[in-house]
Specification:
Number of domains: 1
Strand content: 15-25%
Radius of gyration: 20 Å
Largest sheet: 8 strands, parallel, barrel
Shape: globular
Order of helices and strands: EHEHEHEEEHEHEHHEEHEHEH
Oligomer: single chain
Length: 320
């Protein structure tokens, strides 16, 4: 198990990773890279990037193919091409996991009392999720590749309300795994999305650990004072943070992952911490509590990555 972070195919970020002792990356924004399906032959780019990664004694833990809505009919054809290309690249490079959002079928019904539109329950559309993903999973399985679904709700307040991810809640994971015979369908697991739903990450690993194929190392903090005054759906009640700056017990999380047989790396997901991020003049929208910020102009993203690395490496066995 190595500690790394999420990045696009950027050589400068690889250099920084090497200089600061990171051992892995999650390759993000694959669809817009030179290996994506918009390029007739993306293999030369993939080979060159993989060689640059290896030259720095880093490894690619997973390819983040596409984080949009593959089940939206307007996106499905393109999404299928992205994941199929990512699977080809992963098999060629020896990367075990391709990741992304599973998507959601968004249909509305009218509430009889208020005449307001509401989402139809996602569980009704599980057959359509399986119809899209099982053929892709079978292609991946034939090439020795796994598909990992990130469970970020993609909705307000970090909650699965009006979002576009059918697998934002563990109850839907359970339905999927019970219905599908594709053992290479699993999770790109992230503790922060569980904490924001008041789910214990360690208990969650004990139940679903065998299906965790890749980990986004990100923490979260629940502001109890705001919660008790304004309730769950209020800005600032739940916020994402770097590991070590939130409420996740990373000793227990890593212990549980190892107990479950987790065989990949911990790749830190930055960009979300309200303090340790690169600040513009205005506060970030997800924690906007004032009109201005005294952190304007400060570049703290890399400091946050190093704090997270220092937190995680206490509990990760060193490679022999």
């Amino acid at each position: 198990m190595r500690i790394g972070f999420l990045t696009e195919a950027n050589l400068a970020r690889l250099d920084w990773a090497q200089q600061n002792g990171f051992g892995s990356i999650g390759w993000m924004r694959f669809e817009t890279s030179g290996a994506g399906p918009d390029h007739q032959n993306g293999m030369p780019f993939a080979d060159e990037f993989a060689a640059e990664v290896k030259a720095r004694n880093i490894r690619i833990s997973a390819i983040g193919a596409l984080y949009k809505n593959p089940l939206d009919p307007a996106q499905s054809q393109y999404a299928r091409s992205v994941f199929q290309r990512a699977i080809e690249v992963a098999a060629r490079l020896g990367v075990k996991t391709v990741a992304g959002f599973p998507g959601a079928v968004i249909e509305f019904e009218t509430h009889p009392k208020g005449q307001n539109p509401v989402y139809k329950p996602f569980e009704k559309f599980l057959p359509r999720l399986l119809e899209f993903w099982e053929p892709i999973a079978k292609i991946a399985a034939d090439k020795g590749v796994r598909i990992a679904f990130e469970h970020c709700p993609m909705a307000p307040y970090h909650l699965p309300i009006m979002g576009f991810n059918m697998l934002a809640q563990p109850a839907m994971w359970e339905r999927l795994f019970n219905e599908s015979k594709c053992e290479n369908l699993g999770l790109e697991w992230d503790a922060s999305h569980l904490i924001c739903q008041f789910i214990d990450p360690v208990t969650n690993i004990h139940k679903f650990g065998s299906r965790i194929f890749h980990v986004h190392a990100k923490d979260a903090f629940i502001n109890r004072q705001l919660l008790e005054v304004y309730g769950l759906c209020h800005p600032g009640v739940a916020e994402h943070r770097f590991p070590g700056l939130g409420q996740g017990n990373w000793a227990e999380i890593i212990h549980a992952l190892l107990r479950a047989g987790y065989d990949s790396d911990l790749n830190i997901e930055g960009w979300h911490d309200p303090v340790f991020r690169d600040h513009d003049a205005a506060p970030p929208a997800d924690i906007k509590l004032a009109k201005t910020t005294r952190l304007a102009g400060q570049k703290l993203e890399e400091a946050g990555l190093l704090i997270a690395k220092g937190t995680l490496e206490q509990f990760v066995p060193r490679e022999s």
